[in-house]
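Is this the right way to post structure tokens for a design question? Let me know if I should format differently. Anyway, here goes:
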């Protein structure tokens, strides 16, 4: 019942990207409306998998962006949530898509599954890579590696000369560059979220000198500053008390 009422309120957060209008015009002019509806149906069912599990874990959805070649669900403060929760939310998209294929035998299933699992930000493949990197290194270096891999793959895929391919890759590249430019702000917002919500982490890590580039997921940090051990809470208090 809770899931039903939550789903009713989610439709207000759905945003259709303007590129949809361009694609719709192309589809109508080329007489491929039926095929495109089949294509879109996979995208919607895939995203439903992410959304349903996120509701179970009580993740707050900010916006669901519907694109002509995919969809993106943005969550609030997701980068400080437990990794296992994000992993389950992430894999339920492909799982729902596979179930949908077995029910409908939709011909676009394998193509979309392959594209979505490429490690290009913000596709699911990049998020899987990010979760793996979060286990072994900091947020900053995890993002840096994912963004680097994304740029390499986008440049490689640009060799395939196709107008739809170009539009999709241009959107991904624009989105990627925007996030690269905001990387420092992203890490600072992660720190601020920790300061505001006081998350409890079972694992601890000691780091020489404070640096936002060294903040790791699922860890509570102790920083060695001037020979003294200082917890991250104290560091963040000094950073953000004047802001609030």
């Amino acid at each position: 019942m809770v899931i039903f009422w939550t789903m009713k309120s989610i439709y207000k957060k759905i945003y259709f990207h303007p590129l949809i209008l361009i694609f719709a015009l192309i589809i109508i002019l080329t007489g491929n409306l039926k095929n495109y509806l089949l294509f879109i149906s996979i995208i919607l069912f895939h995203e439903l998998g992410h959304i349903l599990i996120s509701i179970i874990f009580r993740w707050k959805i900010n916006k669901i962006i519907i694109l002509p070649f995919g969809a993106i669900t943005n969550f609030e403060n997701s980068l400080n949530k437990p990794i296992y929760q994000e992993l389950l939310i992430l894999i339920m998209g492909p799982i729902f898509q596979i179930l949908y294929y077995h029910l409908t035998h939709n011909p676009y299933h394998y193509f979309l599954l392959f594209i979505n699992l490429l490690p290009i930000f913000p596709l699911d493949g990049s998020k899987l890579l990010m979760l793996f990197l979060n286990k072994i290194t900091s947020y900053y270096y995890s993002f840096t590696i994912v963004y680097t891999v994304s740029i390499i793959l986008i440049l490689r895929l640009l060799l395939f000369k196709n107008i739809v391919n170009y539009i999709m890759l241009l959107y991904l590249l624009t989105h990627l560059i925007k996030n690269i430019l905001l990387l420092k702000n992203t890490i600072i917002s992660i720190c601020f979220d920790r300061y505001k919500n006081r998350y409890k982490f079972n694992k601890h890590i000691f780091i020489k000198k404070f640096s936002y580039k060294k903040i790791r997921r699922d860890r509570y940090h102790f920083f060695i500053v001037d020979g003294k051990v200082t917890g991250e809470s104290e560091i963040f208090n000094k950073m953000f008390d004047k802001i609030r």
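Format looks fine. Someone answered above. Worth noting: The chain is about 60% helix and 15% strand. Residues 176 and 182 are 10 Å apart (CA to CA).
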